[in-house]
Amino acid sequence: MELLHFLIDFILHVDKHLEAFVTTYGMWVYVLLFVIVFVETGVVVMPFLPGDSLMFVVGAMCGVGLMDYHIAIPLLLVAAILGDQCNYSIGRYLGPKVFQWEDSRLFNKRAFNQAHAFYERYGGITIVLARFMPFIRTFAPFVAGVAHMSRARFTAYNVLGAVLWVVGICTAGYFFGNLPWVQANLEKIIWGLILIPGLLAIFGAWRAGRQEKARAAQAP
Fold it and tell me: Does residue 153 fall inside a structural domain?
C-alpha cells in the first residue's frame, strides 16, 4: 500500500518530486528520466508510470534553468524509441511462443489474421496516436509485435510518434509550464493529461465494437 501511495503521489506531484531529485542528485535526474520513459514504453507490465505529465514538467523545468532542454530532449527521444522497440520485440517473440498451438484456447487464427491485417493497414497511425494515450502507448507496440506488423514500418512510425510526443509536450511545458495560471492548476492539468486521452480511447474502442457488431449483424 505504501508503494501504491507513493506512485499516486509521484504521478500527481511529479513536479515537486522531480525538483527535489534535481536538487539532491543533480545530473542523475537524466538517468532517472531515461529509466522512467523506457520502462513505461518498453515493459508491458508498467503502463501506470507518468509519461505526458513527466514530459510537460521536464519542459517547464528546462524553461527555468533547472534542467538542460538540449540534453533532456535527445535523451527522452532515445528512451521512447528504444522502449517501443523493446516492447514490439517482446510481443513479436512471445506471440509465436504463446500461440504455437492453433487449437489452443489462447490462439484464434482468425483474430490473429485480423490483427495482423489491421496493423499492416492502420498500424502506423495507431502507433503515433498511442503515444499520447496513457496505458494504450504501453500496449500498442506489444500488440503490433504479436500481430507481426513489419519491423521497418513499425520503426518508422515509432520514431515519428516519439518525436511528436517528446518534442511536442516538452516544448509546450517549456513555453507554458511556468505561467502562473498553469502552476496554480498543474494538478488538474496532470489529471487531464491522464484522463482525457484514456476516455477518448475507451470511447473509440466502444464505438469500434458497436460498428463491428453492426457489420456482423448485417452479414448474410
Answer: yes
What's the pLDDT score for residue 203? 59
Q: Look at residue 217 and tell me if it is in a domain.
A: no
pTM (2 decimals)? 0.76
pLDDT at 216: 58
State the total domains in the chain: 1
The verdict on residue 47 lying in a domain is: yes
Domain range for residue 147?
2-211
* pLDDT-derived band at 41, boundaries 50, 70, 90: confident
Q: Residue by residue, what is the 3-state secondary structure of the chain? A: CHHHHHHHHHHHCHHHHHHHHHHHHCCHHHHHHHHHHHHHHHCCCCCCCCCHHHHHHHHHHHHCCCCCHHHHHHHHHHHHHHHHHHHHHHHHHHHHHHCCCCCCCCCCHHHHHHHHHHHHHHHHHHHHHHCCCCCHHHHHHHHHHHCCCCHHHHHHHHHHHHHHHHHHHHHHHHHHCCCHHHHHCHHHHHHHHHHHHHHHHHHHHHHHHHHHHHHHHHCC
Residue 220 lies in a domain: no
Question: Over the chain, what is the mean pLDDT?
Answer: 77
